[in-house]
Amino acid sequence: MLACDRDGRILSAGRGVFELTGFAEKDLMGKDLRDALTLVGEDGKDPVGTVLEWGVRQMDQPMSLRSRAGLQKRVRCDFFPAYDEDGGMLASIAPASNR
């Protein structure tokens, strides 16, 4: 899980983020989620932008990211907008299963 501000900058990252990406929380703090993890949606979709602009959930989104070691990984992501004054969102990233 990652918590981001209203501009998509990372505020905190759970231990699982390190295990999946190799990036420690301190390496990610303050960076744009999409840029920090080279997080890209399939078919040119931008679910992060949709959440931040429209305030709607984006569930089970197929995406790819680049790990600290430079490996491209397929992942599934859920994004949840924060419905408070500060805005922002929560992001859950998990390895993609071979369905």
Bin the helical content.
Answer: 10-25%
The CATH homologous superfamily is termed: PAS domain
What is the total domain count?
1
- The assigned structural class equals alpha+beta
**How many angstroms does the end-to-end distance come to?**
23 Å
Contiguous uncertain segments of 5+ residues: none
Spatial order of the strands forming the largest sheet:
2-1-6-5-4-3
Strand content: 35-45%
As a whole number of angstroms, the C-alpha radius of gyration is 12 Å
CATH topology: Beta-Lactamase
Please tell me the overall pLDDT. Answer: 94
Question: Quick one: overall form?
Answer: globular
What's the count of strands? 6
Classified by CATH, the class is Alpha Beta
Major beta-sheet overview:
6 strands, antiparallel
How does this structure look, described?
The mean pLDDT is 94. The protein has helices at residues 15-21, 25-28, 33-36, 47-54, and strands at 2-4, 10-13, 40-41, 58-66, 72-81, 89-95. It is globular. The two termini are 23 Å apart. The protein has a single domain, classed as PAS domain (Beta-Lactamase). A six-stranded antiparallel sheet has the order 2-1-6-5-4-3, with helices on one face. The chain is of the alpha+beta class. The protein has four helices and six strands.
